[in-house]
Design goal:
Shape: globular
CATH class of the largest domain: Alpha Beta
Largest sheet: 5 strands, antiparallel
Structural class: alpha+beta
Distance between the termini: 25 Å
Order of helices and strands: EEHEEEEEHEEEEEHHEEHEEHEEEHE
Number of helices: 7
Oligomer: single chain
CATH architecture of the largest domain: 2-Layer Sandwich
CATH topology of the largest domain: Uridine Diphospho-n-acetylenolpyruvylglucosamine Reductase, domain 3
Bound molecules: uridine-diphosphate-2(N-acetylglucosaminyl) butyric acid
Radius of gyration: 20 Å
Helix content: 10-25%
Strand order of the largest sheet: 6-7-12-10-11
Strand content: 25-35%
Amino acid sequence: MQINQNISLKPLNTFGIDVNAKYFTTVNSINDLKGVLNLKEHSNKLILGGGSNILLTKNQDSLVIHINLKGKEIVSETEDFVLVKANAGENWHEFVLWCLKNDFGGVENLSLIPGNVGTAPIQNIGAYGVELKNHFVSCEALSIENNTFVTFNKDDCHFDYRNSIFKQEAKGKYIITSVVFKLTKKKHNLHINYGTIKSQLDYMGITNPTIQNISKAVIAIRESKLPNPKEIGNSGSFFKNPVVPKSHYHILLQSFEDMPSYKVSEDMVKIPAGWLIEKAGFKGKRFGDCGVHKKQALVLVNYGNAKGIDILNLSQLIQKTVKRLFGISIEAEVNIL
Ligand code: EPU
């Protein structure tokens, strides 16, 4: 394993922010990873997966460890189900395509989400009515402190909307090295009622969808609304959708009759941050080289040479404006480093 110095992280974060890592290494095996964790001279370490959920606002002084652990395998199977283990450095969408090729059902609604398998549990990735937690069995993680493996079962992970133990008390303490999923081999449980999936399937002329059809529909919807990070730097949804008390929601409804919402519990309502940001006038607005995507206001974009700090400033302006107009605090979903 080799430690390089002053390496640009631009190709390794989907926002395309050009900052340097003072020290950088790529790990291709567990042995490499254990070796790196033993390097006492580098006490500060930053773990980098697919780079799809970070905003880099400055050069990184720590040792940046790029996780490139590849491989996927069937761990066990019955007539109806299969347990599949994928290593952390597998690209998420390629993993989904592999599942579809094998006709393993469960993750098709999560097609085309940027990032890697190993970082997917951290924020419990979700889209179109499915979350990672629905198919997660366990993950293996290496403790940064004592270089030993720990297995986290589903309950240990405290999964919630865009949240898990890895964003809370276990934050910065573990490196997820592999994840096990439970998928269906037949009688797939299809989720086609969310948002525009049904109408997209209708448009495609499909009445009796397969998991492969659903994936194609999700890909078409995402491609029509979300910018491709290879063309325009972005990190998907920059903010989480806020959950507010019902009383607050009803007050807002008096002024904004068209405000969309989802019931979360008897007392709480989720409001799409994209709607709040659009209503606040930011959708499609450009500020120098950064801006708010023209088709989905939840996504901040780098048109070329934006600095992380420009995007951070824009996000804070949006937060302040939404707070002033609606009395709602919206929280960043991406990790700001
Ligand atoms: N909306 C607007 N203006 C916008 C964007 C959205 O008014 O600019 C409204 C829509 O009209 C709709 C509602 O907000 O009524 C919801 O929009 P959408 O279905 O696009 O979903 P979202 O809540 O904006 C979430 C996820 C996405 C995921 C989609 C589909 C979060 C933070 N984001 O977005 O996830 O793809 O649902 O399931 O929960 C991501 O995490 O990177 C991501 C893209």
